């Protein structure tokens, strides 16, 4: 098993935690057990995104559009942290599956060092060039508002990266409940701070950014307490387990960088769609997309949560060389994801007008109501196909094949979704609705392609396993 870094002395406890026991057991039960807390936490986090948008609506459509122009970069930061977190989850879970506890601990320490290094590199350039970046993305007259919001967010890049990477470490050892507690605490604190900072202290759009950073800083303190003081985790953070290792960094980044780029591709897609919308419509269309995509992000939360659990479960199964569990995990997660997605589609269709009215309650945003309703209606066809692509990519992340997962996301987000959006909106002349239908078409084709790719990979693994396993006496 070439991806392990040998550590001679066993300095960590040999006792499994409840999370590790669940992680290495029945994959169906593990996915349900790990997904449940994550769905709750992520739904609450997404609820905050919706609530945040509602508060910002009171500042006018320009403020909404400004956040829309900064959101792609913020998504890049979230994606970078979540991507490295996924790399840490995969690397640590594979070592847990193989019984290499010290190797798992060494991987966790490496992941934290990576968060420090990345934040040191990116923070200053993002803060300094916040306004030029907003202008580059088409912000125009809203560039000043976008910069006021973005500079505060970018100054807290360390907290954004650290928290998401720390979540990945907790998920790797099946500790979904503690991950949930941290995410819920950050979200609730953010919800309380937003109206106080935006309106109470008169900070305006910058207040929304300050609420995010302060809440993440508070949760960072809690995570550091769990890691370095309480010390009741499967992995341990100790000088004795840390051995600088280039192969360990490569193992984390082999999944982490492609996973981060996957999130960045979503940001690139949003940037491209924003530019298309400015061409065929106006900044109001960007505001509609900014609001609507928050609703979509909320709707796919259960699927994203399942995907995070799949990375952990598949990683542990791959480390233990239990390939049959990988197939079970993929099939079960897809069926569970589609069932939940269909429920989301029905609810979204039924409550489309009510949802739209929430984001258009002020006189400054009332004119956005019809466009929001139209976007939400089209996206009802988007949800059921998300599990095919997202959960298939999660399987490849779990087995350490980050580049394959990246390729599949690239096809879904750019080659299919962005191209279809452009073709339908401009050459065919559908305008703004063409962008929405392009998203749906891209997700359908990309999802089917990703699903087929995983099944071929699993069939190949089955064949290789049969070829390597000697026949037992009496077998044909």
What does this entry show, briefly?
By secondary structure, the chain is mostly helical. 80% of the residues lie in helices and 0% in strands. It has helices at residues 18-23, 27-57, 61-97, 101-128, 130-136, 143-155, 157-172, 176-200, 205-230, 246-280, 283-299, 301-319, 323-350, 352-358, 369-379, 386-398, 402-425, 432-468.
Q: What's the N-to-C terminus distance?
A: 30 Å
Overall body shape: globular
Beta-strand content bin: under 5%
Tell me, rounded to a whole number, the average pLDDT: 83
> Which range best describes the helical content: under 10%, 10-25%, 25-40%, 40-55%, 55-70% or over 70%?
over 70%
How many domain regions?
1
- Main pleated sheet: none
**SSE string, helices as H and strands as E:** HHHHHHHHHHHHHHHHHH
Number of strands: 0
- Helix count equals 18
Class inferred from helices and paired strands: mainly alpha
What are the low-pLDDT stretches, counting only 5+ consecutive residues below 50?
1-10, 469-476
Rg calculated over all Cα atoms: 22 Å
Walk me through what this model shows:
- By secondary structure, the protein is an all-alpha fold.
- It has one domain (18-464).
- The protein is built from 18 helices and no strands.
- The chain has helices spanning 18-23, 27-57, 61-97, 101-128, 130-136, 143-155, 157-172, 176-200, 205-230, 246-280, 283-299, 301-319, 323-350, 352-358, 369-379, 386-398, 402-425, 432-468.
- Helix 2 (27-57) packs antiparallel against helix 11, helix 3 (61-97) packs parallel to helix 6 (143-155) and helix 10 packs parallel to helix 17 (402-425).
- It is globular, with a radius of gyration of 22 Å.
């Amino acid at each position: 098993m070439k991806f392990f870094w040998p550590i001679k002395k066993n300095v960590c406890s040999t006792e499994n935690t409840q999370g590790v026991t669940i992680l290495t057991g029945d994959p169906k039960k593990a996915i349900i057990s790990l997904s449940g807390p994550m769905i709750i936490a992520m739904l609450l986090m997404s609820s905050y995104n919706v609530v945040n948008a509602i508060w910002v609506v009171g500042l006018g459509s320009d403020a909404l559009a400004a956040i829309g122009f900064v959101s792609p970069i913020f998504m890049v930061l979230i994606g970078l942290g979540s991507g490295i977190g996924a790399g840490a989850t995969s690397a640590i879970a594979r070592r847990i599956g193989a019984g290499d506890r010290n190797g798992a601990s060494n991987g966790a320490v490496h992941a934290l060092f990576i968060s420090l290094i990345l934040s040191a590199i990116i923070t200053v350039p993002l803060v300094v060039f916040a306004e030029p970046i907003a202008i580059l993305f088409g912000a125009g007259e809203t560039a000043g508002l976008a910069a006021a919001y973005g500079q505060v967010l970018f100054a807290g890049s360390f907290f954004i990266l650290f928290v998401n990477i720390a979540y990945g470490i907790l998920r790797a050892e099946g500790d979904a409940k503690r991950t949930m507690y941290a995410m819920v605490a950050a979200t609730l604190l953010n919800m309380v701070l937003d109206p106080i900072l935006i309106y109470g202290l008169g900070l305006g759009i910058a207040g929304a950014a300050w609420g995010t950073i302060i809440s993440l800083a508070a949760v960072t303190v809690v995570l550091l307490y769990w890691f370095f003081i309480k010390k009741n985790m499967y992995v341990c953070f100790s000088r004795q387990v840390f051995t600088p290792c280039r192969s360990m960094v490569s193992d984390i980044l082999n999944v982490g960088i492609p996973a981060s780029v996957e999130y960045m591709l979503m940001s690139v897609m949003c940037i491209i769609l924003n530019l298309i919308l400015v061409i065929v419509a106006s900044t109001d269309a960007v505001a509609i997309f900014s609001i609507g995509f928050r609703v979509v992000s909320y709707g796919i939360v259960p699927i994203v949560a399942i995907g995070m659990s799949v990375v952990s479960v598949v990683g542990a199964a791959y480390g233990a060389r239990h390939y049959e569990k990988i197939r079970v995990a993929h099939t079960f997660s897809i069926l569970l994801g589609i069932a939940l997605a269909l429920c989301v589609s029905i609810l979204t269709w039924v409550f489309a007008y009510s949802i739209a009215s929430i984001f258009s309650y002020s006189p400054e945003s009332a004119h956005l109501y019809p466009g929001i309703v139209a976007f939400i209606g089209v996206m009802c066809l988007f949800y059921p196909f998300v599990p095919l692509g997202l959960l298939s990519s999660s399987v490849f992340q779990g087995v350490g094949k980050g580049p394959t997962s990246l390729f599949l996301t690239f096809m879904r987000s750019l080659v299919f979704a962005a191209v279809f959006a452009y073709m339908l909106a401009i050459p065919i002349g559908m305008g703004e609705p063409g962008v929405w239908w392009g998203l749906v078409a891209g997700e359908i084709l990309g999802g089917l392609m990703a699903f087929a790719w995983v099944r071929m990979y699993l069939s190949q693994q089955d064949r290789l396993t049969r070829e390597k396993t000697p026949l037992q006496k009496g077998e044909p």
